[in-house]
Amino acid sequence: MADEDYLPLPEDADRILVVVAHPDDMEYGGAGAVARWTSQGKQVAYLLVTRGEAGIDTMRPDECARVREAEQRAACAVVGVSVCEFLDHPDGLVEYSVALRRDIAAAIRRHRPQLVVTGNHRESWDVEGRYLNQADHVAVGRAVIDAVRDAANRWIFPGVGGDRWDGVQGVALSGSPWARHAVDISEHVEASIASLVAHERYLAALSGPMADPAVFLREAAEEAGERLPGSTAAATFELLHP
């Protein structure tokens, strides 16, 4: 599978909802695809389950939440997104629950997307299981998948968020080790990098390769682009059909 070409992610959706656990989650690999979609005139909205308040060790959670919310809104603006909502579930302690499903289903009914994008919900970042995923990512990804079904069922959470919405055609998981689809971001790599750079104070608290957006993102995008015909850079996704 590692040597197979990626399939192009279908791009027939006019409305897209991105649902992730933390500020910066979408910027580590998926924001280039968002930049492409908004350049095509698609409506993209973001829903953040937390405000990332536990993400900077040297900053109190209340201050950190304000900083990271502002940085996320700036990151969204870089890729053409003006709608960015937050749910206020506790950073680092997100639980897969009926309450989380209800909150996400309500957003799906409000925004009525044809494509929902979330992060990797698998237990690891690699198929061998060597690099473990973080608990919030797993809980949110699982809840998103179930909330898509919930939003389509008039008898689940009746009236929450509005009328039922069964128009979601796919759920795309950014960063999944089981990715088989990709989006050509050859013309949007710089926007992808700039979107992550907007998380200035968060990045300043990191160390290692994840703290250097230009190197990390460019190398990953170019590597993925080698497997997407006609592309020099790509963002990868696992595509599920509800």
UniProtKB/TrEMBL annotation:
PANTHER family in the record: LMBE FAMILY PROTEIN, N-ACETYLGLUCOSAMINYL-PHOSPHATIDYLINOSITOL DE-N-ACETYLASE-RELATED
Stated name of the protein: LmbE family N-acetylglucosaminyl deacetylase
SUPFAM superfamilies: LmbE-like
Keyword hit for Metal-binding: no
Keyword Translocase: no
Keywords from the named record: Zinc
Top-rank taxon: Bacteria
Annotated organism of origin: Pseudonocardia parietis
